[in-house]
Design goal:
single chain; 233 residues; alpha/beta; Rossmann fold; 2 domains; six-stranded parallel β-sheet; 7 helices; 6 strands; 14% strand; globular
């Protein structure tokens, strides 16, 4: 599949699945807006794309805030004249406020942890989708892809907020797809398992986590970002 003449925006595109997807879109002809909260990471990926002959800009934005979302969409449209594809990938960040832990049974779950996780992993996806839809409609259609998680498909011990948020992303994807299918917009999500990304690596230090996680994977290894990127070879 080629994306010549199309404009793609990826949030959280400075590393991991977001980076691999941005590189994949560019390799297939799309102009790519690489959005990330980390300026250096966004600029590095955009530079890699340009060095390979592609078109890319770097956008520094916090995709967990309304202002950041508006900036990344507005900057993309300003640079490339429109938007055809949105990859919502920036909301899997497991970082929490200092002194907080996401690992807690539901009865012990802190309000701040719940709110922080839902805001990042679910509300951010909703806000970015809402902001991008008018731009896609102005182009006669397009596509939205959300990075969800297998955590949204089944229950885990002690991560209720994350499970609930990712389940919400999956059903938000279904609802939006149903609402906009007749207007030329496709909405899908991917549900990765354990992928070797900078976001997962801190969890590998938790006692038994790495062994238990890898032990449940038939290939006996973590997935790689390039195996999950949206425009597969």
């Amino acid at each position: 599949m080629r994306f010549d003449g199309k404009v793609a925006l990826g949030s959280g595109a400075g590393s991991g699945i977001g980076r691999a997807t941005a590189m994949g879109f560019a390799a297939r002809g799309a102009s790519v807006a690489v959005a990330d909260i980390d300026r250096g990471k966004a600029e590095t990926v955009a530079a890699e794309i340009r060095a390979a002959g592609g078109k890319a800009i770097a956008i520094t934005a916090d995709a967990g805030t309304p202002a950041g979302i508006d900036a990344m969409v507005s900057d993309t449209v300003r640079a490339f004249g429109g938007l055809d594809i949105l990859h919502n990938n920036a909301f899997g960040n497991l970082a929490l406020p200092p002194g907080r832990s996401r690992l807690a049974f539901t009865g012990d779950l802190d309000d701040a942890v719940w709110t922080h996780t839902i805001d990042l992993a679910l509300t951010g996806v909703f806000r970015a989708t809402r902001r991008a839809l008018p731009e896609l409609l102005a182009r006669g259609g397009g596509a939205i892809v959300n990075t969800a998680s297998i955590a949204g498909l089944f229950a885990d011990y002690a991560i209720a907020a994350y499970n609930a948020a990712k389940a919400g992303v999956i059903n938000l994807t279904r609802v939006t797809a149903l609402e906009y299918a007749g207007r030329g917009i496709r909405v899908n999500c991917v549900c990765p398992g354990a992928i070797d990304t900078p976001l997962l690596r801190p969890s590998l230090g938790i006692r038994g986590f790495a062994e238990g996680t890898v032990g449940m994977i038939p290939m006996r290894r973590l997935g790689r970002p390039e195996e999950i990127r949206i425009p597969l070879p």
